[in-house]
Amino acid sequence: xxxxxxxxxxxxxxxxxxxxxxxxxxxxxxxxxxxxxxxxxxxxxxxxxxxxxxxxxxxxxxxxxxxxxxxxxxxxxxxxxxxxxxxxxxxxxxxxxxxxxxxxxxxxxxxxxxxxxxxxxxxxxxxxxxxxxxxxxxxxx
Length: 141
Description:
Layout: E1 2-10, H1 13-23, H2 28-36, H3 41-61, E2 68-77, E3 82-86, E4 92-96, E5 99-108, H4 114-118, E6 126-128, E7 134-136
Helix pairs in contact: 2-3
Keywords: Ribonucleoprotein, Ribosomal protein
Family: Belongs to the universal ribosomal protein uL22 family.
InterPro entries: Ribosomal_uL22 (IPR001063), Ribosomal_uL22_bac/org-type (IPR047867), Ribosomal_uL22_sf (IPR036394)
């Protein structure tokens, strides 16, 4: 297993968890595609985290990049500095700037290929009937 981290990222844990729940268990290549086309600034953080984890797995440990899956993806709370906003008529407001940590673990799954995960991989060319005798599959155009 290969671990990759992004520390002290601006953003709330609750918002990052929406992406983390979506990506857990997904192949790294598919997750990179999903985050590449997501319209959010948070998706860039996950994209760079996953790309870094994939590069570490390939270059440092010699793993196959096609069989990498996301084993664990955690979002942790980081420091929250307080900022004083001065308002009109002598008023003030205290704001908390929320930060998060992203931690990703990637592992290699030997029986997984990217095409098989999407459902477009190789399929068997026979159907099994009720009496368990294989019959050639007929494709009608």
